[in-house]
Amino acid sequence: MSLFQIFVLLFLVGTCVTLTPSTFLSTEDFKRLETLFEGHLSAKKDVQSVYYGALGSKLIGKPIPHAQEVCRYLKSQVDTDATNLFFVAKAAAALPGCKLTVPADTVQALQRSVGDKAQVSDLYHAVGALRALSEKINSKAVSQALQAALKKDDGVLNLGYAFHLASELDGELAPFLDRIEDAVVQADEVDQKYLQYEGGVGITSTIVTGAYRLAEKANKRPAITDEQAIKFANYLVNRKSIQSLKGAYHLLNGLTMFCSNKFHLPVVMSLASPAALSSARPRLAVQVTDLLGRPLTHDLTLLADSATRLQDDAVVISKSPFAPSKADKSLFELDMLASTPGRGFYRLVVSARPSKPDARLIGHTGAELRVKVLTQMTVDAVELGVVDADQTTAPRTNRLVQHSKLGSVLEADTHQKLLLKFTILDKQTKKPMRCHQAFVRLAHKETGDEVVFVAEPDASLVYKFDMEVGAQTKKFAARSGAYEMQLIVGDPVVDNAFSWTMADVVLQFAEAARARPADLYQPKPAIRHEFRAPEPRPSAVISTVFTALVAVPLLVMLLLWARIGINVSHFPISLSAVGFLAGIGGIFALYYCFWLQLNMFATVKYLFGLGVVTFLCGHDALARLAAQRKQKV
C-alpha cells in the first residue's frame, strides 16, 4: 500500500468515526434499580415514593412485592388534591388488580379544574389522574386550556408536561408538535457528547419521553435529529449510577423510550472481552445491544472498518468482518492477532449493518473502541560485573541467562562501580524494544532498606546501569553489607513483566561517612519568629525643632490678629454658629490627641462624629449669614 493510499484511508476512517453510545444498563445496574424501587415500595413513606417505585418496577418487568398491601395504602391516601390524586391513581394503575374508587364529586372537581386559568402542571396532574381513573376528558377544552397556559409560562419543564398531556388528547396536535423544536434547542451541550437540561435527569427524561410520545400519537417524526437523539441518550445512560428514587425512575423511563419508540433506536457497541489481546487471548468480542443491554431484533453484520495503531497511525486492519457468536446473538468476535498487528494501543472503528435497512437505527456506524495488543519480552545479552571507577583496568563482567542467579557474590567498594548491560527483545519480532519501566533494586539483606535506580537505554536500545559506589554513599546512608540485586521490567503492552533476582552484592562504604540515623520521634527545635527591629527614632533636639517650625505659622497668625485686630461683629450668635466653632476646636483637639496617643482607627471613628456635627452647624450658620445679607440688600 502506497503512502498516498494510506493517507486517503486514514482520512476516510477519521471522517467515518461518529458519535455513538458507549455503554448500557448492565445486569448489575438492573439489580441495583430493582432493589431501590422495592425498598421504597416497602417503606411507603409517601405517595410519591410509591408512585416512582411502582412505575419503576413495572418498567423493569419484575413483579411488585406486597402489591395488595401497597394497594391498600394507596386507597387510604385518596383526597381531593389533584397532584396527590395523580400519584395515587397512576401508582394504583401500575399495580396488578388494584381497583381505585374515587368519589364522584372528586372526579367532577378534577374535570372542572381544567380551565383557561389553570397552570400547565395543574392540567398535567388533573388530566393524568382522570386518565388513570379511566374517566372521560374534553380534549378540545384541555387543548385550549393548555395553549393558554403555555402562553403564560413556556419553560422547558412545562413544555415537557405539555408534550405528555397532548399525547393523551384527540384532535389537532400541530400546536404542540411545533414546540418540540423549541424545547430541544434549549438543551445544554456538554463536551460535544451530551445534551441535557439544567434540572438534570428528571427534566431531560420528561422532555425527551414526552416529545416521542407526542410524535407517536401524531404519527409524525419529532424535530430531533439523529445526533441530538444520541447526545440525549448518552447523557441519560451515563447517569446510570444515580442513587435517588425519582432520578432512577426517570433514567429508566427515558432509556426505555429510546428502546421502544419508532423514530430513533440508539445502538450500543461495546467491548465484551478484555481490551488487552495476547497470544493466549487473541479474539476480540464486541457486544451490540440497545441502551437496556438487550440484543437487537435485526440481523446484523459487524465490520471492523479499521484498526489504527496510535503510536505511528499505522492501519493494520481494514474492512474485516466479525464472526457472530452462536451462543449469544448480541456477541461478535474477531481474531485481531491474525493480521500480526504488533504490540501497542489501537483505535478500532466498527460498524453494524442490518440485513434490511432500518431508518430507526442510529449510532451503529463508526463506533470507536480502544484496545491494546500485548507481546512478551525476553532479556538478552545480560552482562553484570564490578569495574574500577577510574577504569584503569579492563572490566570483568559475567554473562547471565534470564531468571538465573549469579553463583558468586560480587564485592565493590568506594573505588569501584557496578555495571549492568542488557537488551530487551520483543519475543514476536526478535527485535530490541523500549520498555516503560526498567529498574534496578538493591535491598539490604538485614535491614530491608532498599535503593532503586532507573536503567536507561541508549540509541541502540541497549540498557545500561552504571553505579559508582562512592558517589552513592549518601543514598545508601553509608550502610555497608550484603545487598540483593533485582532487575524489574514492565510495560503496559507486555504481559510477562517480571522481577528477577540477579545476584548478591557486598558494598563497602567508608565508616567515616556513616550517617547517624535520624530519630523521627525526637522533638524538633522550637521555631522562634523574630520581627524586624523598628527604625531608629530621631533625637529629642530634632523633634523639638521640627515641632517649633510646624507651630510657627500658628504663632504668626496669632501675632497678626493681635496687631490688626479681629472683626467679630458680623458673627451670628446662634446655636449653629457656636456648634461650628466648637466642632472646629474639637477637630484640632482630636488631631492633638492623635499626635500624642490615639491610633488611626480611633481617630477616624471620633473624626466622623465631629465632622458630621461641624458640617451641619457650619451649613446652617452660612445659610443664616446669606439670609441676613439678602435682607440688607
What report would you give on this structure?
- This protein is of the alpha+beta class and 633 residues long.
- The chain has helices spanning 3-16, 27-43, 47-60, 67-75, 82-94, 104-112, 120-132, 139-152, 156-166, 174-177, 179-184, 201-218, 226-237, 245-260, 540-564, 575-596, 600-632; strands at 188-190, 194-196, 265-266, 268-271, 276-277, 283-289, 300-309, 314-321, 323-324, 331-335, 344-354, 361-362, 367-373, 377-388, 396-400, 410-412, 416-426, 437-444, 450-454, 456-457, 462-468, 481-490, 498-507.
- The protein has a five-stranded mixed sheet with strand order 5-13-11-7-8, covered by helices on one side. A five-stranded antiparallel sheet has the order 15-14-17-21-20, with no helix packed on it.
- α5 (82-94) runs parallel beside α7 and α7 runs parallel beside α9 (156-166).
- It is flat and about 120 Å long.
Q: What's the layout of helices and strands?
A:
Elements: H1 3-16, H2 27-43, H3 47-60, H4 67-75, H5 82-94, H6 104-112, H7 120-132, H8 139-152, H9 156-166, H10 174-177, H11 179-184, E1 188-190, E2 194-196, H12 201-218, H13 226-237, H14 245-260, E3 265-266, E4 268-271, E5 276-277, E6 283-289, E7 300-309, E8 314-321, E9 323-324, E10 331-335, E11 344-354, E12 361-362, E13 367-373, E14 377-388, E15 396-400, E16 410-412, E17 416-426, E18 437-444, E19 450-454, E20 456-457, E21 462-468, E22 481-490, E23 498-507, H15 540-564, H16 575-596, H17 600-632
Parallel strand pairs: 3-12, 5-13, 16-23
Antiparallel strand pairs: 1-2, 4-6, 6-10, 7-8, 7-11, 9-10, 11-13, 14-15, 14-17, 17-21, 18-19, 18-22, 20-21, 22-23
Helix pairs in contact: 2-3, 3-5, 3-14, 5-7, 7-9, 9-12, 12-14, 16-17
